[in-house]
Amino acid sequence: MRILITGANGMLGRTLQRKLAGFTLIPTDLPEGDITDETKFDALMAKEKPDAVIHCAAMTAVDNCESNQDLAFKLNALGSANVAAACSRYHARLIAISTDYVFDGASPRPYHEFDLPTGGATVYGQSKFAGEELIRHCCPNHVICRISWLYGPGGPSFVHAMLKLADGSRPELKVVDDQRGNPTSTLAVADALRGILERPLLAGTFHLTCEGEASWYDFAREIFRQRGIEQKVTPCTTAEFPRPAPRPANSRLEKRMLRLCGLPPMPEWREALAEFLKSGL
């Protein structure tokens, strides 16, 4: 199977290149893999003729999306439409990466795949939701995979940031304790994507976050525990660290579609973290 990866130089794209052994991979990124140029991307698809496209390319800097709204929609919405339309024209299956930010984060329970997203309160979430809708419209043969709280080899990620901050120069770290989500390793996501690739008839929307939940405070403490680092961590509120883009209080995603389709469950988040730390940063 020939698989073209957009955004292949990003954290997930790099992991996919490591983990998807056995497939013929076509990693693309800027400038040759410019998803905002429909003519250039069409020519790339015509040349490579992939059986499937894993669409990772996106503008994911949440705060920057607020100040660069046109660029966010150009990359996350229009870019996704260009990829989806090209996949439809060249009969390639599309597996697109999305985010928990398509939800508003106000639910008292984890979101499952049949909850209706709204785009939430951020430009990032709204642009990614617009991208999802354009994918559904332009390419029937698609799988949308939502992920969140992602970390992986090479970073950048929360794990890398915490380990850098715990350099012995700070007696205390304050970490937000009123946002909850599913810390998720790119290694676990890559394994799940392999399972989806091996089931060519699957379609629809899947959540691919690790099992179990934590706050950022919980996550930080577990990182330090597993690394054997003595670092004082103090919980704080979101209000103490205001950001241009509001962070959702609830980023938890239920993996209902994995269960319904008989796919393996995602690993528990602490186990996935341990595997990542052993494999190298």
Automatic annotation (TrEMBL):
Organism annotation: Victivallis lenta
Involved pathway(s): Carbohydrate biosynthesis; dTDP-L-rhamnose biosynthesis
Role: Catalyzes the reduction of dTDP-6-deoxy-L-lyxo-4-hexulose to yield dTDP-L-rhamnose.
Protein name (Swiss-Prot/TrEMBL): dTDP-4-dehydrorhamnose reductase
Gene3D superfamilies, alphabetized: NAD(P)-binding Rossmann-like Domain, UDP-galactose 4-epimerase, domain 1
Pfam annotation, one family: RmlD_sub_bind
UniProt keywords, alphabetically: NADP, Oxidoreductase
Gene Ontology annotations of biological process type: dTDP-rhamnose biosynthetic process
Enzyme Commission number: 1.1.1.133
